[in-house]
Design goal:
It is a single chain. The protein has nine helices and no strands. The protein is an all-alpha fold. The chain folds into two domains: 97 residues, Rna Polymerase Sigma Factor, Chain: A (Orthogonal Bundle); 86 residues, Winged helix-like DNA-binding domain superfamily/Winged helix DNA-binding domain (Arc Repressor Mutant, subunit A). Helix 2 packs antiparallel against helix 3 and helix 3 packs across helix 4.
Length: 189
C-alpha cells in the first residue's frame, strides 16, 4: 500500500474504513508530524500526544475529507490547528525541555551544537505564531509555499512575507542585535 497516493489512501479509509490505508498514512506521516510538533511546542512528550491527536482527528473527521488539495497540506493543517490551540491554552506554561548533556561523554563540538540548537528553538518560540509556523513548515518540513498557504489558509505572498520577517527576527535574536522585538512585529529599526 505504500506506493498508493496519500489522497487515495485517505479516500479508501473514508469510504471503506480500510485500516491498512490509515496504517500506511500513519507510517508516512508520524515522524515528520512529530518533528514539526516538537519544533512547534518545544516539548517532545507533548508533540507525541499531539501527533496521536492529529491521527485521531483525521479518523474522526474522515467523512469530511475532500481530496481538493494535497493530503500533505490537509494533515499539516490539522497539526497546525491542534498545536495552535495547545499553544493558546498553555502559552504561559510552555517551557523548553533541554537535554541533559554529559560533557565528559560528549565532544565539545557536540555540546556546542546542542546549545546552538537550543538557542534556535528558543528564538523560534519567541516569534509570533504565523511566522513560526511558516518557517517550521518551510524549513523543517519542506512544504512548498503553496502547501503552506493551504495549511495556514492565507495567500502565498503572506507566507513569503512571514518567512522573510521571521528569518530577520531570528537572525537578530540569534546574533543578539537590538531591534529583534521590533522586527518580530514588523517595525523597522
Amino acid at each position: 500500500m505504500d506506493e498508493i497516493k496519500d489522497e487515495v489512501l485517505m479516500m479508501n479509509y473514508r469510504q471503506k474504513r480500510d485500516p491498512e490505508a490509515m496504517v500506511s498514512l500513519f507510517r508516512r506521516y508520524r515522524r515528520p508530524l512529530f518533528q514539526y510538533l516538537v519544533r512547534r511546542t518545544g516539548s517532545p512528550s507533548r508533540a507525541e500526544d499531539l501527533t496521536q491527536e492529529v491521527f485521531a482527528a483525521l479518523m474522526k473527521g474522515a467523512d469530511k475529507y475532500e481530496p481538493s488539495g494535497s493530503f500533505k497540506s490537509y494533515i499539516y493543517r490539522i497539526a497546525s490547528n491542534l498545536s495552535a490551540k495547545e499553544w493558546r491554552t498553555y502559552r504561559r506554561r510552555v517551557q523548553l525541555q533541554t537535554e541533559v548533556v554529559d560533557t565528559k561523554a560528549q565532544s565539545a563540538d557536540r555540546v556546542e551544537s546542542m546549545e546552538e540548537a537550543a538557542r534556535v528553538r528558543n528564538a523560534l518560540l519567541e516569534l509570533d505564531d504565523g511566522q513560526r509556523d511558516a518557517i517550521l513548515l518551510r524549513e523543517y518540513q519542506g512544504l512548498s509555499y503553496e502547501e503552506i498557504s493551504q495549511v495556514m489558509d492565507v495567500a502565498v505572498g503572506t507566507i513569503k512575507s512571514r518567512i522573510a520577517r521571521g528569518k530577520l527576527a531570528l537572525r537578530r535574536t540569534l546574533l543578539g542585535q537590538p531591534g529583534a522585538q521590533a522586527a518580530r512585529i514588523g517595525v523597522r529599526s
